[in-house]
Amino acid sequence: MIKTDVYAFETDTVWGLGADINSEYAIKKIYELKHRESTKPLILMSYSLSAILQYIQPLNTEIKEVADKYLPGALTIIVKKNENFPKYLNPEFDTVGIRIPDHSGFQDFCRENNLVLATTSANLSNETPCKNSKEVEEKFSSHVEIIKNTILGKNSETPSTVILAQDKGFKVLREGNIKF
Predict the structure, then answer these.
(1) Residue 80 class from Cβ within 10 Å (0-12 exposed, 13-18 middle, 19+ buried)?
(2) Cis amide bond preceding 129, omega within 30
(3) CA dist., res. 41 & res. 44, Å (int)
(4) What are phi and psi of 132, to 5 degrees?
(5) pLDDT in single tens digits along all 180 residues of the chain
(6) Predicted structure pTM score
(7) Domains along the chain with CATH numbers
(8) The Cα angle at residue 40 between residues 111 and 89, in degrees rounded to 5
């Protein structure tokens, strides 16, 4: 069953918006809600790396070691897509960012609903991400399901560190709380 809702959720970094990776309708809705250019990619998030592996090419040894050390956590790894990746999601790219937030409420929601989410920060394009559930409700409550049970403490409000997987090793694209 494909879930057609857009969800707002707290993570260990900033609040996010996400939809089931298999729901083209809900993914389009995220772009509409945020007034986001359709050429800007979404990333994948879920409760475990194993849930995401079905959509990406195998990780090189160095990236696997980094993932094992820092995930779950505030790290986004840009990797190559595989043939299972939906054609309508990020069609301009052969890569996708993946992340497993270190937030038990988010992980529980994804695990219980068997979800891999296509996600982005909870904000209107070119604005700062929402810092709390009140801001999310003010901007999005009439359009998204806000996952209240995920609020288990304060997030860091600092975006994740972003690295690009390469044939050997990786390149840091954005530094957040995780330093290399």
Answers:
(1) middle
(2) no
(3) 10
(4) -155, 175
(5) 567 789 999 898 889 999 999 999 999 999 999 999 999 999 999 999 999 999 999 999 999 999 999 999 999 999 999 999 999 999 999 999 999 999 998 999 999 999 999 999 999 999 998 888 888 888 887 778 776 544 444 566 788 899 999 998 999 999 988 999
(6) 0.91
(7) 6-174 (3.90.870.10)
(8) 50
Tokens of 93: 């790219």
Between the CA of residue 33 and those of 67, 130, 136, what are the distances in Å? Answer: 31, 14, 12
Distance from C-alpha of 23 to C-alpha of 118, rounded to nearest angstrom: 9
Q: What is the phi/psi pair of residue 61, to 5°?
A: -60, -45
Eight-state DSSP code of residue 70: H
Q: Is 172 helix (H, G, I), strand (E, B) or coil?
A: strand
Look-up of token digits 């049970």? 149
